[in-house]
Amino acid sequence: MIKMSGECSRENTGVNQIAPFSEVSKFHGHVCPGLTIGYMAARAGMEELSVDRDIDEELVTIVENDGCGVDAVQVVTGCTIGKGNLIYRDYGKQAFTFICRDSGKAVRFVLKSDFNIEDLDPELSELRPRVISGTATDSETLDFRTRINCISEYIREMPAEEMFDIKHVKVEIPRKARIFNSVKCSKCGEMFAESRARMENGEIVCISCYEEYTRGW
């Protein structure tokens, strides 16, 4: 259990070439345990692979959830949806795989099953429902945010090995992102990538206009 104090505002900025947590929380909008978990995975992943922040798809990251930690991964690694090197798999797992194209190495981080935020501060579970529902007092809300900040700081000082099961894995490295020609939807008239085209009554249509035929199979 962490100890509450009035000095829970420090951040770990001692890692070379890794974005400080302040940049991550600014991008995300607030500090929370989920964001911190993603930050720790991304930081440790880059250190494990001995790589710098991605510029042009040198790195690939596979995330297995769509939670707060994915924002941290984007800021730290430079892997993004827009560049095509952030791959989302809807498995609902706190799992992150970092891949270096040049070396072919990949490392996967999975949050340990016995890692529980509530164990770090049991009082948090009592405050959270009231804060989320909007029934908490100003004092309770402030207490909640202070505790969250303290938990985040505590997590950032933990060795990655205590938080995650870490394994070097073999993966099929995804191809770099492609740029496709655009085609015009015969229904709405909007342009879209030809790789997403559908045919309907002999005409090209976009996915949002396409009337799918199914017999329930």
Structural description of this entry:
By secondary structure, this protein is of the alpha+beta class. It folds into two domains: 21-168, 60s Ribosomal Protein L30, Chain: A, CATH 3.30.1330.130; 179-216, Wheat Germ Agglutinin (Isolectin 2), domain 1 (2-Layer Sandwich), CATH 3.30.60. 33% of the residues lie in helices and 17% in strands. It is built from seven helices and nine strands. It has a five-stranded mixed beta sheet. Strand 1 (59-63), helix 3 and strand 2 form a beta-alpha-beta unit. Helix 1 (21-28) crosses helix 3 (69-77) and helix 2 (33-49) packs parallel to helix 3 (69-77). The longest helix is centred in the C-terminal third of the chain and has 19 residues, at 138-156. The chain starts with 20 loop residues before the first helix and ends in a 12-residue tail after the last strand. Residues 27-165 form the Formylmethanofuran dehydrogenase subunit E domain. Residues 179-215 form the Zinc finger DksA/TraR C4-type domain.
Ends distance: 52 Å
- Structural domain count: 2
Gyration radius, in Å? 21 Å
Question: If you average the pLDDT, what whole number results?
Answer: 91
- Quick one: biggest sheet? 5 strands, mixed
Shape: globular
Q: What is the class of the largest domain in the CATH system?
A: Alpha Beta
Would you count the extended β strands for me?
Answer: 9
CATH fold type of the largest domain:
60s Ribosomal Protein L30, Chain: A
Regions with little confidence, pLDDT below 50 for 5+ residues: 8-16
How would you classify the helix and strand content by structural class? alpha+beta
Helix and strand string, N-terminal first?
Answer: HHEHEEEHHHHEEEEE
Strand content: 15-25%
